[in-house]
Amino acid sequence: STARRGRRCGQLKLGGVRATELVERHGSPLYVVDEEEARNRACTIREALQREAERIGTEASVYYAGKAFLCVEVARWMAEEGMSLDVASGGELAVALAAGVDPARIGFHGNNKSVAEIERAVAAGVGTIVLDSEIEIERVAEAARAAGVVQRVRLRVNSGVHASTHDFLATSHEDQKFGQPLAEAPRIVRAIAAHDALDFVGLHCHIGSQIFATDGFRESARRLLGVYRELAEIRGGAIPELNLGGGFGIAYTSAQADDAPAIETIARELADIVAETCDALGVPIPKLAFEPGRSVIGQAGVTLYTVGTTKAVALAGSDAGGDPADLGAGERLYVSVDGGMSDNARPALYGADYQVRIANRASDAEPALVRVVGKHCEAGDIVVQRDLLPGDVAPGDVLAVAATGAYCWSLSSNYNYVPRPPVVAVREGSSRVIVRGETEDELLAKSVV
Ligand code: LLP
């Protein structure tokens, strides 16, 4: 990760800038994004997917899923690296447009887009709108008619493939809010085709997120292509595209480093299954589309915190004694930092694991079992569940938590009236703010008397 690569003499460097210097200049806590890393990952992922698509005689569009982390600057980077952009709200659309992203390369998602959002998207000329329910057909058609355009639309379906981190199991009825069951696709596509203002370009399916096993993607592709013929007949011609969503998993800790499949592997396996399935069905290979978010930006982000207090707590229950990581100490050092679940909700929401390092100095102290916690009034306010830090970790130390680029700023909150930290981009030894932090005054100003 960025954090490990940049380590020099105990002083962590990010994008060539010392962590201590970043905190002195921009404050703590601080979200740091390594611009080169984000751009490189965007480029690598796009190229891998496009190369494999070309190998089987088609093309691929790669949409950066802005929900992972979006601001005007990052939208610009992504566009410059050849990515299209997936937006999931009017707000994300506004950011994309402000960044000058070509509207034709924007895909608009959401299970409950407002009529106003649909109208804005159509008026802006977004490339595709993903229909999530039958009700939306009429709404998008109406907006397109009013604007005098033909709107390209995809239909989001549930492939019935339920993917979780390490395995997947097939269910015929997915009890969740997104998309329509695949079996209903023909009926719904017929309803779409009845509108001159709509152009159905293909199915969309996103099987889940933080997925390590490639079988889920392959199975989903196979099932979606299974209805290709039927849909092509309804459309009266080839189905131009197949959008397989995002969800490629990343390593958050070194223990996960071997679990995440390389994008090259995913791309090759997906291209193979698409080629084989189309061949077996005797149908042309559609263009492919993907929507990675986390795998693009996750590992380009690091959060810096400053330690405020520490306290040793006796290990209880299953953690007592039997834990190889407790080093026989029988206690856990709670290290409180100046942020927490307001800047990273993922441990509280998903039990997500992260790793932590001291960023401001080297230490020869014996490692101690630590839990890094935030400053919020909630016991679940955990930043790092379990890791080892030098036992002399102390107030004033700067801690770096790696792989916080995705779904941290974007899921952040003002719990306890804690202002959001700024986001700075680092590159070639310099840093600049790309999202301003909030001030207490700004938060206070929201209270109406
Ligand atoms: N496309 C669609 C339709 C999606 O719903 C998502 C994620 C993506 C693409 C991008 O998935 P990615 O490549 O980033 O896994 N807050 C959770 C993740 C929620 C993902 C929601 N949809 C987390 O922090 O893990």
UniProtKB/TrEMBL annotation:
Catalytic activity: meso-2,6-diaminopimelate + H(+) = L-lysine + CO2
Annotated residues for binding of substrate: 294, 346, 350, 378, 407
Lineage top rank: taxon: Bacteria
Swiss-Prot/TrEMBL keywords: Amino-acid biosynthesis, Decarboxylase, Lyase, Lysine biosynthesis, Pyridoxal phosphate
Record pathway: Amino-acid biosynthesis; L-lysine biosynthesis via DAP pathway; L-lysine from DL-2,6-diaminopimelate: step 1/1
EC number, UniProt record: 4.1.1.20
InterPro entries assigned to the protein according to its UniProt record, in alphabetical order: Ala_racemase/Decarboxylase_C (IPR009006), DAP_deCOOHase_LysA (IPR002986), De-COase2_CS (IPR022657), De-COase2_N (IPR022644), De-COase2_pyr-phos_BS (IPR022653), Orn/DAP/Arg_de-COase (IPR000183), PLP-binding_barrel (IPR029066)
One example of a Gene Ontology biological process annotation: lysine biosynthetic process via diaminopimelate
One GO MF term: diaminopimelate decarboxylase activity
Binding of pyridoxal 5'-phosphate, residues: 247, 291-294, 407
Cofactors, names only: pyridoxal 5'-phosphate
Residue ranges of every copy of the Orn/DAP/Arg decarboxylase 2 N-terminal domain listed in the record: 45-296
Residues the record marks as active site: 377 (proton donor)
Enzyme class: lyase
Modified residues (N6-(pyridoxal phosphate)lysine): 67
Family recorded in the similarity comment: Belongs to the Orn/Lys/Arg decarboxylase class-II family. LysA subfamily.
Subunit structure: Homodimer.
PANTHER family named among the record's database cross-references: DIAMINOPIMELATE DECARBOXYLASE (PTHR43727), GROUP IV DECARBOXYLASE (PTHR43727:SF2)
Function according to Swiss-Prot or TrEMBL: Specifically catalyzes the decarboxylation of meso-diaminopimelate (meso-DAP) to L-lysine.
Annotated HAMAP family: LysA
Name recorded for this polypeptide: Diaminopimelate decarboxylase
Organism: Leucobacter chromiisoli
